[in-house]
Amino acid sequence: MNLDLTWRLLKGGGRKGLLGAWLTLGAVAVSTALLLFAVAVNFAFAARADRGAWRNPVPAEKGAVAIEAARFDFVGDQAITVIDLAALDARAAAGVRPPGMPRLPAPGEVWLSPALAELAKELPADQLAERYPDPAGVLGEEALVYPGELVAVAGHEPDAPAMTAARTQDWVLGKGPAKVAGLAGTPSEDSEAYRALTLVASVLMVVPLLVFGGAAARLTVARRDRRLAALRLVGATPGQVVRMTVAEAVSVALAGALLGAAGYAAAAPLLARIPIGGGSWFVSDLLPGPLLLAAVLVAVPLLVGLSAVVGLRRVVVSPLGVARRETPPAMRFVRVLALLAVLAVFPLLTRGTGIGIVAVALGLAFLCVNLVGPWVVSLIGRITAGGARGPAGLLAGRRLVDDPRSAWRTVSGVALTGFVAGFIGLLSPSALAGDEDPAQLVVSAPAGQAEAVAGQARERLRAAGVRATVKVSQRGRDSDPLVATALGSYAGTATVDRARTALAGLVPGRTPTTRADDQRFGVQILADIRVGTIVVLSVSFLVAIASAGITAASSVLDRRQTYGLLRLAGTPLEVLDRARRAETLIPLTVMGGGAILVGVFCAMPFMIGGMSAAGAVTLGACVVAGFGGVVGAGALSRPLLRSVTVDPAPRPD
Questions:
Q1: How many whole angstroms separate alpha carbon 280 and alpha carbon 82?
Q2: Nearest 5°: CA angle at 257, between 251 and 263?
Q3: How far is CA 576 from each of CA 247, 393, 562, 565, 646, rounded to the nearest angstrom?
Q4: Phi and psi based region of residue 325 (left: phi greater than 0; alpha: psi -120 to 50; beta: remaining)
Q5: Residue 74's beta-bridge partner residues?
């Protein structure tokens, strides 16, 4: 009964009535697709961490069957992860199988990842292949953190120098030998850092999506409220009104959620090309699992249905007031107090706490900006109407006072993006200083052996035909002396790689590195933060522009009869259009600026040093893009405004 009546009323609204349902469906589809991405990326980083955990050995308290160590080698500007393995007991170690391999590598064997094996064939042997001669096999996909990763797994005897010599304690450069009972390992420090950053980024993306998804249920809300109020006045019970609303909202939202999930699945191969953490992604990492997909497909329609039901309070309690279009009661100042309270405790919540608490505090600040938005819009409306000097300003002010929630929905996406831009803009890192020094390879040598190591280095480089100056420095990492090999200011990448190959194994377990190699992790994580910034802002602006466009069209449909009657009364179309622009741009200027300031305030506890030039440029670009997007969305809905003013007659819905 309820479904049949709901469908009849929906069809009775005519083509423009159905357009409102299509707008809701589109809003939910966009929200669902982006929500899946924002959530799935956390699982993708978790999958990466799990796949790379076997390279991060956990020392065994008892029952050790193998020795494992890890270090980084380099070719060109790419890092090679080198895993050294040695079986302590061949029989006990028979059951230990490294990921992507059928067994532990035998002493002297080396296994290469597909990308490294291909690169070794492409480059001259003295630049790479001689470091890993005669590979015994190719690693499977399970051994790789991302497609195209360069990985080598080398087998050794347990008493080989590479498995017994002390190594650096700096985890950025590698892991020293450890006796292990298995190769389960534990997630590395860098993977945990990426997961923490991803959680913060997800909060910055998810909160606007939830707000947009909830607002989707209230598109063309005025038309629906008047229709349901009329049903209440002719005898419909509150329960029937609620059931019809839920049926309409949930059915449209479910269709939108399914469409959004299909769109995300189609876009996953393109999203997998985004390079973060050293490379691109396996598509399977970005695809949500069955439980996550089911949870999203259930949660999104429920959120939309709940939002629609919450908006029915006036219809159920005062249907006559809705039918007569009375101005709703003014909003309470408690909304502002909630935001001020959160901002007051935010520095305390984020000081010395875990990333989970930081994410919750950030989400609360985000939601409070959304909570205070309608109150500020209502206040702006009163000021605008009181100071209006023409009909456009008066119409805009009265509109903001009459329905501040609807006016806020039009600009909320861009305003909340201002929060994201303010937060990220202050934290956008500057690039590390470039390496202007002449090419130089440095390797630490055990105490008392530096001169002997330097002599061997000279002989190896001379045999390889590489001109270099080798000297010993007493200042090095872990207090070990350094053997520095200066290759000259004209040495290119090929010369540096030939020198690396010549010096490979010079000091067991230690890799000769340049200054750029030592800064690799810092440079990479800064580059990844910049990529993440672009991704987060892209998602935020997709939500903002979609929200502005859809809600602008929905607002025109909601007020089509009012617009038509104003046109019949002689109001020029240009005045109506100016009023529409004013009721959008005035709240956007105030709330957008306020949201940026709140975002900057929330970023201050995490700020190191001053604001970078990149951050200032990012913030400025976001402001320009936000205003441009809202103006463009309003322009696109102008033809709809013209069409609804042609026929002001009320529809039978």
A1: 20
A2: 140
A3: 34, 10, 11, 12, 14
A4: left
A5: 79
Instruction: Collapse the DSSP code of 606 into the 3-class scheme (helix H, G, I; strand E, B; otherwise coil) and give the result.
Output: helix
CA nearest 244: which of 314, 308, 317? Answer: 308
Q: How far is CA 180 from the centre of its chain?
A: 36
Asked if 620 contacts 536 with a C-beta cutoff of 8 angstroms, the reply is no
pLDDT in tens, 474-490: 654 456 777 777 777 67
The H-or-E segment that residue 111 falls in is: strand 110-112
DSSP state at residue 276: B
Task: Read off the tokens for 206.
Answer: 């998810």
Do 142 and 195 contact (CB within 8 A), yes or no?
Answer: no
| pLDDT tens readout for residues 239-278 | 666 677 677 778 888 899 999 999 999 999 999 999 888 8
Which residues, listed in sequence order, are joined to residue 442 by a DSSP beta bridge?
484, 513
Cβ proximity of 619 and 532 under 8 Å: no
Report the distance separating Cα 343 and Cα 613, nearest Å.
26
Question: Does residue 36 have a pLDDT over 90?
Answer: yes
Q: What is the pLDDT of residue 14?
A: 52
Residue 369's DSSP bridge partners are none
**Cross-sheet strand order for the sheet of 66-75:** 137-138, 110-112, 151-155, 78-87, 66-75, 174-180
> Do the beta carbons of residue 73 and residue 131 sit within 8 Å?
yes
pLDDT tens, position by position, 322-353: 444 555 556 678 888 888 888 888 888 777 67
Choice among 52-61, 311-320, 482-491 with the minimum mean pLDDT: 311-320
Among 300-304, 316-320, 494-498, 503-507, whose mean pLDDT is lowest? 316-320
CA distance 279 to 311: 46
For residue 398, the model assigns a pLDDT of: 84
Q: What is the mean pLDDT of residues 284-289?
A: 91
Q: Which two tokens stand for residue 220?
A: 């063309």
Q: Nearest to residue 498, comparing CAs of 70, 122, 74? A: 74
Q: What are 387's two structure tokens?
A: 């100071």
Q: What pLDDT does residue 639 have?
A: 81
Classify the C-alpha dihedral 36-38-39-41 as positive or negative. Answer: positive
Residue 38 makes CB contacts below 8 A (sequence gap 6+) with 202, 205, 206, 209, 539
Of the candidates 482, 53, 34, 551, the residue with the CA atom closest to the CA atom of residue 268: 34
In the predicted model, is pLDDT for residue 512 greater than 60?
yes
Considering only CA atoms, give the Rg of the chain. 32
Nearest-CA neighbor of 131 among 140, 119, 114? Answer: 119
| Sequential DSSP letters for 490-530 | T--HHHHHHHHHHHTTSSTT---B-HHHHTHHHHHHHHHHH
Q: Which is higher by pLDDT, 216 or 29?
A: 29
Do residues 485 and 506 make contact, with C-beta atoms less than 8 angstroms apart? no
Q: What is the 3-state secondary structure (H, E, C) of 24-49?
A: HHHHHHHHHHHHHHHHHHHHHHHHHH
- Of 33, 123, 78, the closest CA to residue 524 belongs to 78
In the predicted structure, residue 13 carries a pLDDT above the cut 80: no
Q: Can you give the pTM of this predicted structure? A: 0.78
**Distance between CA atoms of 104 and 106, rounded to whole angstroms?**
6
Q: CB-based contacts of 94: which residues, under 8 Å, 6+ apart? A: 103
**Cα 504 from Cα 651, distance rounded (Å):** 81
pLDDT value at 397 more than 60: yes
505 φψ region: left (φ > 0), alpha (ψ -120 to 50), beta (else): left
| Residues with Cβ within 8 Å of residue 47, at least 6 apart in sequence | 282, 285
Q: What local confidence, expressed as pLDDT, does residue 127 receive?
A: 92
